[in-house]
Amino acid sequence: MGVVVTGTVPVEEFALAHTRSTVPSVEFSGGRIVKSSEDEVVPILWARGADRDEIREALEEDPSTEDTEILADLDSEWLYRMRWTERVRLVVQMILDSQATLLDAEVGAGSGVWSLRVLYPTREQLSSTYEFCDDNDLTFDVRKVYEMNSEPAGQYGVTEGQFAALRAACEGGYFQVPRGTDLDAIGEELDLSHQAVSERIRRGMDRLVTETLLIGNSRDH
User: Fold this and answer.
1) According to the model, what pLDDT value does residue 219 have?
2) Cα separation of 174 and 65, whole Å?
3) Which residue in 98, 92, 104 sits closest to 213, CA to CA?
4) Any idea what the Cα angle at residue 141 is, between residues 139 and 142, rounded to 5°?
5) How far is Cα 46 from Cα 77, in angstroms, rounded to an integer?
6) Which of the two ends of the chain, N or C, has the fewest CB atoms closer than 10 A to its terminal CB?
7) Which part of the chain is the HTH bat-type domain (predicted)?
8) Residue 104 has pLDDT above 80, yes or no
């Protein structure tokens, strides 16, 4: 069964340390990062919070990345495709050696760490990352570890009850404008009270936002 891990890695031990040092206000965030057909790590990251030319110049000088190109320009943020070099040893080991998938990576303005969410096929492969860090004096500060379950929401830490409520709400049009259903109707479908449905939806939404949009600011509940 797959294992999802959230944790942090110091910027200086990971990627784009030079860029973050040169342009402290820049923020990077990205979705799924995998290896390319040439066994290279090719991330696609959004950059924001600084001048485009400053970011470009810093990336060109950054020893952790090569072949940087802009895929989208939205004036205040830019989507970059780049190739991370072998200096980014931790993520290379996670993805290439442990058969893991880096689901999210984010570093905020002024932050000294990257916040990561990683999917490992098994706990044994997670252990290989621990061993790699110990052998190479690297830091992977794990904050949460949870097993994937049969439901799609398992990788985000949502409970079965929260998932059922969110699914019923979404399928019924609760999040649409105007709403296609209400809490009473959802509660009747799930055999729950109005209050119970409301709490499950709110807690489930809180968890989803925390584990996706706010991964760099994850909170313990």
Assistant:
1) 45
2) 44
3) 104
4) 140
5) 7
6) C
7) 159-209
8) yes
